[in-house]
Specification:
The chain is mostly helical. It contains six helices and two strands. 77% of the residues lie in helices and 5% in strands.
Length: 114
């Protein structure tokens, strides 16, 4: 349970960092960031696998680059579900998704997670 809380806190901090770096992504409070991290985790666990499966031919044709579009769509979906988390358009979602992916990989590498 403690690992889940740490992962949620780190995800919320990364979302807050991305919101400060990418114009077009806004987070109201720290609680909004935690809620957005929780919803994003659920969206990535429940919705994303189905979307990836349904778009497999496009993902294959683009050599996996379409996965970045899927990440952006998951951020937009999270934005629609969490009132204090707003992503204003596809381009900020795409840039934010790319940055979140890089940061998550970096954190996992630094702490030896994975």
């Amino acid at each position: 349970m403690i690992e889940f809380a740490i992962h949620l806190a780190v995800s919320a901090l990364l979302l807050m960092f991305v919101a400060n770096v990418v114009s077009g992504i806004k987070i109201g409070t720290g609680l909004d960031a935690v809620l957005a991290a929780l919803v994003l985790g659920l969206v990535n666990a429940l919705v994303k696998p189905l979307v990836v499966f349904l778009t497999l031919p496009v993902t294959f044709l683009t050599l996996g680059l379409f996965l970045f579009v899927i990440n952006a769509l998951m951020l937009l979906l999270t934005s629609a579900l969490v009132p204090g988390f707003k992503v204003q358009g596809f381009l900020p979602a795409l840039i934010g998704g790319l940055l979140l992916t890089v940061l998550n990989v970096l954190v996992a590498w630094i702490f030896g997670i994975g």
